[in-house]
Every structure is written in C-alpha cells, then in structure tokens.
Amino acid sequence: QVQLVESGGGSVQAGGSLRLSCVVSGYTSSSNFVGWFHQAPGKGREGVAVSFDSPSITFYADSVKGRFAISRDNAKRTVYLQMNSLKPEDTAMYYCAADLISGHWSGGNFRFWGQGTQVTVSS
Fold it and tell me: What is the pLDDT of residues 52-68, one digit of tens each?
C-alpha cells in the first residue's frame, strides 16, 4: 500500500521559511514524478513544484520560482519543499503527490496523494 505523509507545515510571518517533508512508503519507482501542490480556501488545487529523478529535472510554478526548492532523498524515500521568502498568498494546504498518470504535471493527474500539511503566512 502506497502512503505519502507530509509534515513541516506551520505558521510563520511573511519573509520567513519552512521546509516541508513528504515520506513515501510502498512505492517502488524512484524515477517518476513527485510533486507538491497547494490549495487555498475557496480555490482550486495548484501545482507548486515537481521533481523527476532520472534524469534529474525540476519544474516550478511561476509564483514560487526563486523562492521554493524541491529536492529528494531517495535513500530516505523523502521529498522536500524548502520554502523561503514566504508571502501571505502562500497560505494553503500543501499536498505531496507521486506517480504522474498523464498530462502536464501542473494538471495534478497523479496516482497517489498525501493528506496535506497546512502552511499559514501572516503579514
């Protein structure tokens, strides 16, 4: 059974940093896409960042380029999202996803999802 468990969310002031972690268990392919999405209250889910392991490729939403960084430690089966220079508009529930089924990664058509971790940024 595949499980994705996120952690690291919390409340910070604008300009602060957080690092989210996603531990992936029961999933054998380390080469597929693993990504982060967020969903703010009253809004749809949006792609934040994605990582493909072999070859090593990362993509980011324009809104987070230069501020967020996705990385993965395959030995620990963990994907990270380092979030710097946080803004109030980054406030959302953040979800980890694995195994892109089809389409562009930002479309969110992933097979496995975590339960999410809340990030709140105050001004």
Answer: 887 889 999 999 999 99
